[in-house]
Design brief:
Strand 2 and strand 3 form a beta hairpin. The protein has about 160 residues and is α+β, with helices and mostly antiparallel strands. The chain folds into two domains: about 50 residues, Orthogonal Bundle (Arc Repressor Mutant, subunit A), CATH 1.10.10; about 80 residues, Alpha-Beta Plaits (2-Layer Sandwich). Helix 2 crosses helix 3. It has a four-stranded antiparallel beta sheet with strand order 2-3-1-4. The two termini are about 15 Å apart. It contains five helices and four strands, in the order H-H-H-E-H-E-E-H-E.
Length: about 160
């Protein structure tokens, strides 16, 4: 199980993954060596999956955000369509969903024209895709991948390596 210090460490790293080990140790009241060992355990347990830079999409000319529902005729339990959708660089997220549609994807593009081209030339050419419904985002009020600290408490224990 995770304790309150593990949750503190996760919260610090979610706020700024570049926080030094010494600073994390200071904030949680532990020795740097003990803090580093906890971080390594969190990585081995899968609680920390990686470290990334958050980049402003508009800085790269990707001003358009869209969510696309994708219908597929693939057999139940097959994820071929999802794998092919995930391989498209402009696709940021792929979710297998219940209901009339099979997948929900989050995409970024430079313009409506660029989005249309991606939908026609990449999504539409996946042989199992039978249709799409696209929603264009007019504005974003909140977008985060940050999880609340208590969510980490449900992760399983992993033996030390």
């Amino acid at each position: 199980m995770f304790d309150s210090r593990d949750n503190e460490i996760l919260n610090i790293l979610q706020s700024n993954a570049r926080t030094s080990n010494a600073e994390i140790a200071r904030q949680v009241g532990m020795a740097p060596s003990a803090t580093l060992e906890r971080i390594r355990k969190l990585e081995r347990r899968g609680a920390i999956q990686g470290y990334e830079a958050r980049i402003e999409p508009q800085a790269l000319g990707l001003d358009l955000l869209a969510f696309v529902f994708v219908r597929s005729n693939e057999v139940p339990g097959c994820a071929t369509t999802g794998d092919q959708l995930a391989a498209i660089p402009e696709v940021l997220e792929v979710h297998h969903v219940a209901g009339e549609d099979c997948y929900l994807i989050k995409m970024r593009a430079a313009s409506p024209e660029a989005l249309g081209k991606i939908l026609r030339q990449q999504v539409g050419r996946i042989s199992t895709v039978t249709g799409t419904r696209t929603t264009i985002v007019l504005g974003t009020l909140k977008e985060t991948s940050r999880l609340p600290g208590r969510a980490a408490q449900s992760l399983p224990e992993v033996a030390d390596a």
